[in-house]
Amino acid sequence: MQSTARLTRGCAPLLLRHTYCCIVARPDRHLFSSGAAAQLRRKQQSQQAPKGFQHVLRASATTTAPVLEKQEIEMAAPQPKYRKDYKPTPYLIEHVHLDFLLNEDKSTVKSKLHMTPNYGDASTPPKLELDGRKDIDLVSVSVNGSALADKDYERTDKKLSISNLPKGSFDLEITVGIKPQENTSLEGLYKSGGNFCTQCEAEGFRGITYFLDRPDVMSKYTTRIEADAKSYPVLLGNGNLLEQGCASEGRHYALWEDPFPKPCYLFALVAGDLALSEDVFKTMSGRDVTLRIYTEAKDIDRVSWAMESLKQAMKWDEETFGLEYDLDLFNIVAVSDFNMGAMENKSLNIFNSRLVIASPSTSTDLDYSRVEGVVAHEYFHNWTGNRVTCRDWFQLTLKEGLTVFRDQEFSSDMNSRPVKRIDDVSRLRTAQFTEDAGSMAHPIRPDSYIKMDNFYTLTVYEKGAEIVRLYRTLLGKDGFRKGMDLYFKRHDGQAVTCDDFRNAMADANDKDLSSFAAWYGQAGTPQVKVSPSYDASARTLTLKVSQNIPATPGQSQKEPVPIPLAVGLLAADGSDMPLHLQGEAGESGTTKVLLVEKASQEFVFTEVAEKPVLSALRDFSAPVKLQVEGQTDEELAFLLGHDSDPFCRWEAGQTLLRALLTKLYNAAKQQKESKLEDRLAAAGGVPETVSDAMGALLTSKELDGMFIAAGISLPAAAELIGSIPNIDPLLLHNVRKYVVQQLAARLRPQLEAVVKQNESAAGDTFVPGDFDQAAKRALKNKALGYLSALDDPRVSADLLERARSATNMTDQIAAVAGLCDSDCPERKTALEEFYKQWKDDSLVMLKWIGLQAGANVPGNLKNVEKLMEHPAFSITNPNACYSLFLSFLRSSVNFHAADGSGYKFIGDSVLKVDKINRQVAARIVSSSAFTALKDYDPERAQMMREQLSRISAENGLSENVFEIVSKSLES
Ligand code: ARG
Ligand code: ZN
Questions:
Q1: Ligand 1 centroid – CA 201 distance (Å)
Q2: Is the shortest distance between the CB of 407 and ligand 1 below 6 Å?
Q3: For residue 532, is pLDDT > 90?
Q4: 3-state DSSP call for residue 535?
Q5: Which residues form the Aminopeptidase N-like N-terminal domain (predicted)?
Q6: Per-residue DSSP letter, 552
Q7: What are the sequence ranges of the domains in the chain?
Q8: Common-topology check for domains 90-213+217-358 and 527-622
Q9: 694-740, pLDDT tens digit by residue?
């Protein structure tokens, strides 16, 4: 998610011949002139400025920054694009031939585009407007072989417009010069670790050459890549290798052809010195596909897990959806400088190295499962994204929501389904629900954006996946498969919309799914209330269900959405009761999916023999916040002990803990005189219902360790922020810490026993993907985490010993992490030793940075500032930035320090990073509490606002950061 823009390099000769009117009408131009004309422009522009921009104008009036200069920048406020304005392009590009001459100083890109008219029967061919960037050096443009005259084209910072075009189809040839080695935004063509690579989604291709950079322009590509043979022995493109050979002066070339039409965001190129690991996959129709993974030579012996995952994913997609790979070669390239996780370029996936490289001694179990999930995700895009793509970027969830759903299902089938569901729901709840309640809240299909990169969000991805899951819940596995089949049958080779997907699901199942449109158009998390009442004489259970979606920026009124609510009823012995829904013939099994479509509705179960305990939202059947009226702690403990639905079982424990944390927080907040501990004890402390329930879970023989570890984890602070008004995050942190310490003290014998029982035997070898082993590690390390909260020197000594003797990274990092939040001598030793052991492994160093930056020891900010100067940290590397800044954001004690120092540090860092990499800078602000400042206590909210104003006042701020900051200032 992120501006290079502000790097001034290699500007082309200016071709501006605009009148003043043109300038005003073209919001994408940067205006830095002054004088009367500028003032007039300013006036007109501010009248048309988007809301966010107007706010910045207001904010600037209250600051003392140099006003005139600032206004000059504000005038050029970026304009949003709207979904409602979608229009097809007047031209399509049938075929693209690209010729790259890669060099150390300036690289040349020649493109030959076979253009076809798409403007109907207009008598004069319209203007062709190609997207570009101001740092592209335009060398030549010709149409059908003749160079264009000056009057036939014009160039602005973002466009190349060509007029007087011939009727019918024509060939357009453009030659440009670019400097990948200076590209620190990591969009378009850039260098990572000395190699050339690309990232074009969403709108990076326009940084490579002038083009119709939008997903509904699908073309067949051939690509010729030429570079020095010694420095860049590997030359990769999309599709099949047609030809390779020597060129002059020690150079060589490769010619690639991709037979499938694709939008330019799926274009990729790699040129470098890379090692390779190869394997073969036999497809269901018996074709052999060559699979290759490329990395720097030092990492090539750590790709076997990624390769294994790829083969599993290919097989799974054949078995589950009947989808086979469509070429004879599939390449993955790992690069260490990458803004996101990975990219599904046709047959040439490019990955952030942290999602390819894995070994037991350097990667945790979590790293292994991420590699598996993301390798699968990118592979699955070949059908959901590449063969069928998006008409415009507003439809991003069409491919991302669906592909996340697919990778979730794949991981569930490879590992434990309940644990995967719990992990996914936790992530949704801690991060997406927060986004959906903050200043950047948007529907899964947004209505507008300034920078598309800001919309690769948890909402589009994770909530989008939940919406896809709704169809599966409602239509069943077979119904969903029928819908998928029809979707591919209708739309293979097309660029389509979310409505097309919904229609395929509906038509294949002969169902009216039109009400589901509301899920695509509305932001905000629905709040669902269920009130059960049992009538013993009538033997009925009535469920009153109501829903409410809170207002979000720009959407004050909401309509109800269709919510599949899966419920079950538990008898006193803990068994599931058979269900009979009034108005339906026969029995409905033991789980019934109720479809809640109205603001409030009633459902009646009949033949209910005894007063049941309600188990609601089984398997988290919809992305909502559920409240069951009148539910007691005893009922929750009962569900935690007995529910046959593993998600609800886990959720009962979480609800119990959330309620406890909320109660204790409120008590602590009220009477501030005495010591916190005394206040919390006076409020009842941790009741036995809770510690007994946790103890029972901890010692359960029937449940697996991974599930137990999730069950005894306290809900994240992020789950409570927003539900408690004007929260003091430091107090919440201390209340959480108190609960952890109380539980640890009370359950100490059980925790210690669990550690012993789950210790891996000496000589055990780590088997990647072995669930039982991973489950043991998860439970043991969770127990150690609790024990570490006791601040007992014996525990610290034990953790240090574990950090030293660990034979795998999961155990090693858990031990070091256990020491990180306490100011004991072992902390320092453990961190130093860890550094010595791993300083040459940049991926492990990311963990080392993250552990320190996220620590909750008071006054840690100065250490974090020092870390920024450490050789292990590099501000131009996105992974290092994420490890440092995003971890720091999670430290309640230091980020939320009462003196505002944490906020200022993030404000400074965003500005610094923005000059290097706008996507990374935007990701830092959008992950911060700055986008949810209204949830915090007034003093903190004000300090956050000050940082936002300061950022917004910055000269040359990227559009990416501008969009987030201006929206946050508005909220
Ligand atoms: N399509 C990629 C994936 O999810 C992510 C690309 C992200 N690009 C961006 N500019 N945010 O698999
Ligand atoms: Zn994706």
A1: 6
A2: no
A3: yes
A4: strand
A5: 140-266
A6: B
A7: 90-213+217-358, 391-521, 527-622, 839-971
A8: yes
A9: 999 999 999 999 999 999 999 999 999 989 999 999 999 999 999 99
449 alpha carbon, closest ligand: 1
> Which residue puts its alpha carbon closest to atom 2 of ligand 1?
343
Catalytic residue among 378, 400, 719, 970: 378
Bridge partners, residue 330, by sequence: 291
pTM passes above 0.70:
yes
DSSP-assigned states of every residue in 381-438: TTTBTTTBEESSGGGHHHHHHHHHHHHHHHHHHHS-HHHHHHHHHHHIIIIIHHHHTS
Cβ of 462 less than 6 Å from ligand 1? no
d(CA 663, CA 668): 9
Contact 116, 92 (CB under 8 A): yes
pLDDT digits (tens, 9 = 90+) for 112-135: 999 999 999 888 999 999 999 999
The whole-number pLDDT of residue 76 equals 65
**Domain 90-213+217-358 is found in CATH 2.60.40.1730:** yes
* Residue 201, ligand 1, Cβ within 6 A: yes
Instruction: List pLDDT tens digits, range 738-775.
Output: 999 999 999 999 999 999 999 987 778 999 999 999 99
Collect all residues with Cβ–Cβ distance below 8 Å to 97 and sequence separation of at least 6.
Answer: 111, 112, 113, 221, 222, 223, 224
Task: Find out whether the beta carbon of 202 lies less than 6 Å from any atom of ligand 1.
Answer: yes
**Per-residue pLDDT tens digits for 925-964:** 999 999 999 999 999 999 999 999 999 999 999 999 999 9
Ligand 1 center–CA 698 separation, angstroms: 39
Q: How far is the CA of 738 from the centre of ligand 1 (A)?
A: 40
Q: State the Cα–Cα distance between residues 741 and 726, nearest whole angstrom.
A: 25
Q: Which CATH number is 527-622 given?
A: 2.60.40.1840
Ligand nearest, relative to CA of residue 406: 2
For the domain 839-971, what is the CATH code?
1.25.50.10
- Whether 946 is catalytic is no
Please indicate whether residue 500, judged by its CB atom, sits closer than 6 Å to ligand 1. Answer: no
Ligand 1 centre distance from Cα of residue 173 (Å): 29
Q: Kindly identify the ligand whose nearest atom is closest to the C-alpha of 455.
A: 1
Which residue's CA is the closest to the ligand 1 atom numbered 11? Answer: 1
Does residue 344 have its Cβ closer than 6 Å to ligand 1?
yes
What is the dihedral angle through the alpha carbons of 966, 967, 969, 971, rounded to the nearest 10 degrees?
170
| 28-924-915 Cα angle (round to 5) | 50
Residue position matching structure tokens 């904010």: 59
Q: Are strands 348-352 and 342-343 parallel, antiparallel or unpaired?
A: antiparallel
Report how far ligand 2's centroid is from the alpha carbon of 417 (Å): 21
Substitution site in 267, 380, 456 for ligand 1 pocket (most atoms within 8 Å of beta carbon): 456
Among 201-215, 565-579, 665-679, 953-967, which stretch is predicted with the lowest mean pLDDT? 665-679
